[in-house]
Amino acid sequence: MTGGAESGGAGEGESAGAVMQVRDARRLGSARRFRIYLLEARFQVVEVLREPMFAIPTLAFPLIFYLFFGVIMGTGGASLAVPTYVLATYGVFGVLGPALFGFGAGLANERDTGVLLLKQTTPMPAGAYLFAKVMSALIFGAAVVLGLFLMAAHAAGVALYRWQWFALAGVLLTGVIPFCALGLAIGAWAKGRAAVAVVNLVFLPMSMLSGLWLPIYMFPDVMQDIALALPAYHHAQLALKVIAMDAGQSVAVHVSVLVIETLIFLAVAALGFRRAGTFSIRRSR
Amino acid sequence: MQEGAASVFGLEPGAAEVRVRRGAMLQISGISANLTVREHLELFRAYYPAPLPTARLLSMAGLEDLARRRYGKLSGGQKQRVMFALALAGDPELLFLDEPTTGLDVDARHRLWSEIRALRESGRTTVLTTHNLDEADALADRVVVIHKGRRIAEGTPAEIKSRTAGRLVRCVTPIGPDEVASMSGVVEARSRGQHLEVLTTQPEALVRELLGRDVGLADLTVVSAGLEEAFLALTRDGKEGGR
């Protein structure tokens, strides 16, 4: 209601005790909260699966790339270095896409259309919304990683120790965290269609400059220096470390950069939400 | 804008308890096109401790045959009805409807109106914003007229209407609104389609004058001023505060 007229007011006459009772009866029980988280995540995944414009580029591109550069072109020589190397870096690429698009473009779109506003009038916990987006990124990222692993093991003949397969999968999927944070920051600031453009401007150049498509050591020094600032570079280096093909910096450096950048992305996102009043983060007066 | 504080059930409008007891239908451009009506309802029902059954929601919104259809494949009016169903999902005590009948055909509008009346019968409160004054007249117990961000009148539809004591004279005539605007008793004159519509406090004098000037005058009606005329009168000299 505009104009400052008071609305409702049915509870004004109630005693504090009665209000407390009502509140207890309506408290969000943990079982119901859990169900909301699950449903929100399930429908997020269903929604994305029914959107070919999302599913094809983000899910199929890493697999097609691997088919070409890993399997067809990479297995010609005596060494399995190329299919092994690009398994790690396309894995990063595959996890990056769903996280950036789901969060960046998805969130911006839902802010634009008003879906998020509508959900915020309901008792939906804000955490359920964010959880659903993270789970969706994780599930689609995992699907790409699984596809890559199957192609690597069966088509390209990549041989890794069992612990390496598991470690590689673990490292790759952990990348969901910094990339979701980056997507969240984009989605919190950019609007609808602009967000898709921003995501593409981040997704493709960052993938290239981080050495996800071509090994980083093939680039000139200047570009290698730029890579040091990019989360996807550090994530790729961690993945490459599992298969002993990284550039040699320490794990601590990569992890520190990723943690710091994740915190920066989250802070930038929080500022954006504060500006827009999203998730009840208050606009400063 | 007027200054002031808003509270719902005596609480902050965004408080957790308020969100459980309130439903809202906003003017938003849409929800996910890729989920079906039933899926959207399932999700929203899960947010509330005592949701209405899905079948009930579907029938209240007239969506029985569309449950399996994806939201993106619905017509504008059907989408609007889904929004209504979502607002009712938690069986709210207080319902906010922001221009709920925009885009609905006459049949769907009347069906929605009767649902809103039924909600009122069962003790629910509805706050409805509309530009359609017939809608306010048909549904409201209390009308608050807001003009340029200020509350300029408040009361039952009858009370608001009674503030405009005039009658509405309608007829088909070549006489233009400008010609009658200066006549005594005339509050407002306008043309609508081929009709001249004049709101006046002296209908007899006006009709006599009109018939005198135009022998071919046709389709003459004189009715009590409706909410729309009251609204026009109020917004014209709309500086006065609430009652």
Characterization of this structure:
The complex is a heterodimer of chains A (285) and B (243). Chain A is mostly helical. Chain A contains twelve helices and no strands. In chain A, helix 4 packs parallel to helix 8 (176-189), helix 8 runs antiparallel to helix 9 and helix 11 packs antiparallel against helix 12 (251-276). Chain A is globular and about 60 Å long. Chain B is an alpha/beta fold. Chain B has two domains: 16-141, Rossmann fold (3-Layer(aba) Sandwich); 165-225, Alpha-Beta Plaits. A four-stranded antiparallel beta sheet of chain B has the order 7-8-6-9, with helices on both faces. A three-stranded parallel beta sheet of chain B has the order 1-2-3. The longest helix of chain B is centred in the middle third of the chain and has 16 residues, at 106-121. Chain B is elongated, with a radius of gyration of 22 Å. The two termini of chain B are 17 Å apart. Residues 238-243 of chain B have low confidence and may be disordered. Classes of the chains: A mainly alpha (285), B alpha/beta (243). At the A-B interface, helix 1, helix 2 and helix 5 of A face helix 1, helix 2, strand 3 and strand 5 of B.
Oligomer: heterodimer
Average pLDDT confidence of chain A is: 86
Rg of Cα set of chain B = 22 Å
Q: Helicity range of the residues of chain A?
A: over 70%
Shape of chain A: globular
Mean of all residue-level pLDDT scores of chain B: 86
Order of helices and strands of chain A: HHHHHHHHHHHH
The strand order across the widest sheet of chain B is 7-8-6-9
C-alpha geometry of chain B: elongated
Tell me what portion of residues of chain A adopts beta-strand conformation: under 5%
| Full CATH superfamily name of the largest domain in chain B | P-loop containing nucleotide triphosphate hydrolases
Number of helices of chain B: 10
Distance between the termini of chain B: 17 Å
